[in-house]
Amino acid sequence: MNPYRIILADDHAMFRQGIKNILESVKDLEVVGEASNGIELLELLGKLTPDMVILDISMPQMRGIEATREIKMISADIKVLILTMHKDKEYVYSAMSAGAEGYLVKEDADTELFAAIEKLRNKGHYLSPLLSSEVVFELIQASAKGELPATSDLLTTREREVLTLIAEGTPNKEIADLLYISIRTVENHRTNIMQKLGIKQTANLVKYAIRKGYTQLGK
Asked: What pLDDT, in 10s, does the model give residues 59-76?
């Protein structure tokens, strides 16, 4: 029986190594590639044909939600398991809407990682036990109807990515480089975000991002 082939994508090398060691302790699992960001991940997918990609949401250059969409465009058969610290429902809905079959919170990884992988291998979907009952209920209801609920957030996925980077103190030029957009586009996103949220000061944007769970800054 051929091993189940997995690619890991996370910008923390030590975390990737730890997950790789755990996975390869199981005989029929094989980590065939590692990436530190979404661009590296897509480059790997041009050379490798994995059965599953396990990736974080918060990565430089191309973040996990965007990468998930790209993975599904490459092959709908590749299973996607999001492994992240984010528990906010907007992230969960965005990930599942992008095509991810599983969403595992890192705090659950030590006890739930193999259960999540097995569920996806058997063509199921997986949600982390740490997610709130509200999130789980809404997703179950939406799944039964064949649709996902709209997020309550006013911001687009790209705007949330820009907001996260702003909250983390990232300069506009670096945001532009990380997201492969122009500085002017970053500035436009910043303006749109402030208008949508009715916020006029960057300090209040940071407070909003922390409150919504887009960044762990200040926690």
From this structure: 877 778 888 888 988 898
